[in-house]
# Entry
Amino acid sequence: MEKTIDWIEKDFGKLDILVNNAGIAIRGHVLDTNESDWDKVNDINSKGYFLGTKFAGKLMQKNNFGSIINIASIYAIVGGTLSFGYAASKGAVRLMSKAAAIQLAPYKIRVNTICPGFAATPINKHYRLTPNAPEVVSIRESIPLKGFIPADQIAWGVVYLASDESEWVTGTDLLIDAGWIAQ
Amino acid sequence: MTNRLEGKVALITGSGGALFDSEFGLGFGGSSAFRFCQEGATVIVSDINDDTGQQFTEELREKGFNAHYKHLDTTNETEWKKTIDWIEKDFGKLDILVNNAGIAGRNDLFETTEPDWDKVNDINSKGCFLGTKLGGILMRKNNFGSIINIASMFGIIGSKASLPYHASKGAVISMSKAAAIQLAPYKIRVNSVCPGFAATPLNPFFRTESESSIVVGRKEETPLKGFVPADQIAWGIVYLASDESEWVTGTELVIDGGYTAQ
Ligand SMILES: NC(=O)c1ccc[n+]([C@@H]2O[C@H](COP(=O)([O-])OP(=O)(O)OC[C@H]3O[C@@H](n4cnc5c(N)ncnc54)[C@H](O)[C@@H]3O)[C@@H](O)[C@H]2O)c1
# Structure
């Protein structure tokens, strides 16, 4: 992370926007989650975002400007049957974003999360590969707008939070979940 | 980006209370009307303040925009019906409804009377229900729509400010979620926007008493230090109105400079 940020500073002179998006999905009930699963998902999903926020924040601080967008999940807000370590990692993302928003506000660096609902991206291959599997159908039916969220919709949310249109938006969560959490 | 709302018909309540060069600036409704016009929408400005409303609409038309004015007291179902019928007749459809009309309330709980409660809940909460219902009926015919209800960060957290105001904005947030679920089968999305402190015509003292401890305090308590510009609320509303948020429903967009994150 540090190397990347140094290179960005050298080659581009500044960093305005950081999207912490890298993540993995590990499924598993709390009683079946072993320590190595926990470590892996929390390392990538949670610690990775901390490092990004810290090192990008240092570069953004020099410019007194920046927008950090952390991709969390609806499982940062509610619990589910399918995953435990993942939920913990995403909950951590949500709260570290709020803490960072407060701590970086003096440098006009904004920090927000996007909480996507069920999206048919490569992380959830089975939504496309087995669209009629009972599990996939039941997820789709549980979504008020009845369908999986196109990745492009998440992209537009990121664009909004990255742009100056949201200059006064910080420390909050943008839910793009087709109404799932609202029910 | 431009033309993000091209071809869309939008109704914004409480959007005619001020002119471009008004002393206290445009409110959220007026600012949204301007950004909607710029993004290519047909905009219906409405208010109870007909003189300013008509004049503001004229100002928009002079800029070459497709803006129209309609008197609408949002607490009155008959007026809602008339307005929606007129929109259907003249424009054929309604794509976007912004329930923005609202008032503030008296602060001291023990001084707050029943009529105080009724007034703020009538305008802020019942007005929003009537709009969602009547606007929803027209949108349903088209199986398309986006309803944006202006709540407040005071619908999420408590404060020393008016208790009925807090109640009315909490109601707006939860009725938006219920409406999102109930209108999802018709592809009508319903979201709320929760602004933080903004120096609009609703809060003239933010400008006239800018040195007072309460006004300075409100700015200082906001992590980004200052009042949220009305235009920032307008951009959030543009996002929720546009197809960029086609899969966003039943949620609240908080635009508060970090106030509720602390
Ligand atoms: N300014 C803030 O700090 C702030 C913060 C959070 C939420 N809000 C909310 O934002 C919304 C817009 O407020 P604003 O700050 O732009 O103030 P504003 O006073 O400029 O806008 C409110 C408009 O509503 C109109 N109105 C009042 N009663 C009406 C009725 N019965 N029917 C139709 N129109 C009516 C007024 O004439 C005015 O034009 C309100 O719902 C308000 O509660 C404001």
Q: What stands out?
A: The pocket of nicotinamide-adenine-dinucleotide is lined by residues B 13-14, 16-18, 27-29, 47-49, 72-75, 100-103, 123-124, 127, 150, 152, 195, 197-198, 200-203 (CB under 6 Å). Chain A touches chain B at residues 98, 101-102, 105, 108, 110, 117, 144-146, 149-150, 153, 156-157, 159-160, 165-183 (CB under 8 Å). DSSP finds six helices and four strands in chain A. The radius of gyration of chain A is 17 Å.
